[in-house]
Design brief:
By secondary structure, the protein is of the alpha+beta class. It is built from 5 helices and 7 strands, in the order βββββββααααα.
Length: 215
């Protein structure tokens, strides 16, 4: 029986070989005690509500689809009267006085996003990752094992075990200072921004069992 490294860095024996035609389904609100989003970015704004909503116009409300700036929470919002929102606009959705948002309807599933919202989401997430570079560099510096045989770094799409060990060994010598530093010290390192952005999209779309960056 051979030997190999576990995610803990110690020697361990090898053990052997679209959218609904009706109203959208809501995801339950956060549980008491969970952190709330304070700010969100508008992904799409529908001033006349959803086109598949067959109710009379006087019963329909303008709808905004948005993503939270902290935990990437997908949200459905209703603006205040006479407020017209633009895609990529920042809005306050915290518990304090809101200037543009009347109320939050709830959380959205990825497959209920409009086509416009999905396109904007990719840009917004990539932009978030760039602006929060120090936070995500910290993930590369401090992330640990998920199980005895799987490291959290391996959950990034396109980052295999070999690259994971190179990152772990390099960060033990000196923590990474930036994405550029990470790419410089790890030969043929995939673009960290693209790795993280794709992982976030996969988590939001329900493709991942373990959540690294979303709730």
């Amino acid at each position: 029986m051979g030997e190999e490294k576990t995610a803990f860095g110690k020697e361990k024996p090898v053990l052997g070989s679209g959218e609904s035609k009706q109203f959208q389904e809501r995801i339950p609100e956060r549980k008491p005690g969970e952190a709330k989003e304070e700010y969100a970015v508008i992904l799409d704004f529908l001033p006349n509500g959803y086109p598949y909503d067959e109710r009379p116009m006087f019963k329909k409300s303008p709808i905004a689809q948005a993503v939270g700036k902290d935990k990437f929470t997908l949200l459905e919002l209703v603006p205040k009267k006479d407020i017209f929102l633009q895609p990529l606009e920042d809005v306050y959705i915290g518990d304090g006085k809101r200037d543009k948002i009347h109320h939050i309807i709830g959380r959205l599933k990825f497959d209920t996003l409009t086509t416009t919202a999905r396109k904007e989401l990719e840009y917004v997430i990539s932009d978030f990752v760039k602006k929060k570079e120090s936070y995500f560099v910290g993930f590369f510096n401090t992330s640990g094992p998920l199980t005895m045989r799987m490291h959290k770094l391996e959950l990034l799409p396109g980052l295999g075990k070999k690259k994971m060990w190179e990152i772990v060994e390099q960060r033990e010598t000196e923590p990474f200072k930036s994405f550029a530093d990470l790419k410089k010290r790890i030969p043929l390192m995939p673009d960290p921004i693209k790795l993280i952005s794709k992982r976030v999209i996969n988590e939001l779309s329900g493709k991942e069992k373990h959540l690294l960056f979303t709730d």
